[in-house]
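Entry 14. Two folds queued back to back today. First construct below, sequence then structure tokens.
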Amino acid sequence: MPRIQFTTPDGASGALELDAERMSLGRADDNQLIISDDSVSSHHSEVTFDGNSWTLTDLGSTNGTKVGGSRVESVNLSSGAAFQLGNVNCVFVGDGEEAAYAAPTMTVSTPSSGYGSHPYNSKLRRGFGPKVKEKSSGGGLLTLLGFVGLLACGAAVYFAMQMGAS
């Protein structure tokens, strides 16, 4: 039976048996095919069989579906086809193929320093609403002090002109 073998970034692996002509794939429990990884959207993609070939179609997922590092909308699945769902490496194993594709051959490079060198903690993000701007400490006081300074300068100029006119 055809299947998708996957390996998550933390090393967990598994196989998803493709036993219907149309199956939803994602992180949520209401999918027929489930990959429990934070980089996989709750309803990430759909796998379909048209009688001749399998196709995986991205459903507008947040982290996308990639082939060779490039984001794609759909993937025609032939035996040995490697792709990524979010950060999860996957490989399609066709009907009757052996488990020769135990681990996908794709690699993800991580920068050693700078932006992206630390893993993103997705548990810090809550919801999809607008991000709340953090309150500044002391910005209002500094603005008030600047305003008072301008008033003092204006008053000094005014009095200097009054003294020169008399």
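Second construct, same run, same settings:
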Amino acid sequence: MDILIKKARISNDENLKDIAIKDGKIIKIEDNIEGEALRLINADGRVLIPGLVESHIHLDKALIADRLPNKSGTLKEAIEVTGKLKPTFTKEDVEERAKKALMMLVKNGTTHIRTHSEFDPSQGFTGFETVMKLKKEFKDIIDIQVVAFPQEGIFKAEGTEEMMYQAMEMGADVVGGIPYNDHPTKEHIDLVFEIAKKYDKPIDFHQDFKDDADGISIEYVCKKTIEEGYQGRVSVGHLTSLAALPKEKLEPIIELMNEAQISVMSLPATDLHLGARNDEYNVRRAVTPVRALRDGGVNMCLATNNIRNAFTPYGNGDLIQIAMLAIPVSHLGGADDLPTVLPMITTNPAKALGLKDYGIGVGKNADLVLLDTKALNDAIIDIPDRLFVIKNGKVTVETEKTIKFNF
């Protein structure tokens, strides 16, 4: 064995398990495993989870909040500010910042990410090419899916349509779209599906990112998904407009989303910061209705979106803190709700990203995190230290700490 983890808690029952790892795979899960291992880890009853999955993040524009701040805190200014900055980005600049963001994620137990990488005629492929390079460089530490993302729109920014095809030829894993920031909206969605079908790739939309529900296009996305036979291959981020719909209008949309097997990435850190900026009292939370979507059968995920830029001027790459934020915001702290939160940063996004051999089971990839907590239901609310991070069967992160009480 390469690694033997002793006495780990992998479920809510009382039985602790030993986990044997060899050649990057989990080869045994039993009550007691004997034998030699190159590395022995005594979990001592602590919780072992599969690696965290960051399903929606922007590496290429991380850590730029201090360059040109978004003073109004609105989405409009965030887009404007970032649009001014992007032509100033160099490959060296993007690489330095993206590496820092990646190390934040790795340190906090993330083993897989999907990053939206932007390009447009004003900045070219500076950021996109850099992120593609980092995907290869970090492949033994973290798996990276790259989304070809037209932040400035496709039809609004002349020349972007051709760049979308170029990005796919350059190796993008996912076709991105942003219907709410382009016109005509339906043609934007149609083109994204056309490109995705050409290259047989999944789709990930920035979807209906507004405080109100006027002009939403999620229903069209669902119908297009079903029409094109793309069920289970389409994800949407933000989707904040659904929070503005009454139950009688929301429920049919959720049913349609469930039929289309749409995955949703809720981005509470960003959406709380940018949303409801014009509300003078009784300020809305402006976050997609996580509970209603979850209860309706939609595959719900929680993700970071941005780290310290005009869209989100804070963050440290810790998905467990994002999940902790979502608990009070989306009323997920009840006894029946709390157990559904950890899957929103593990198994649910793994399903959305189409990850193979993910999870804790014999034959699965050994991408694991040992948490400094002994109760699975407390895995989020303790915000526990990540004691060990294991990627591809190798320990990539180890945390040591000493606490002294002087009384």
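Quick look at the second one. The two ends are 43 Å apart (CA to CA). The mean pLDDT is 97.
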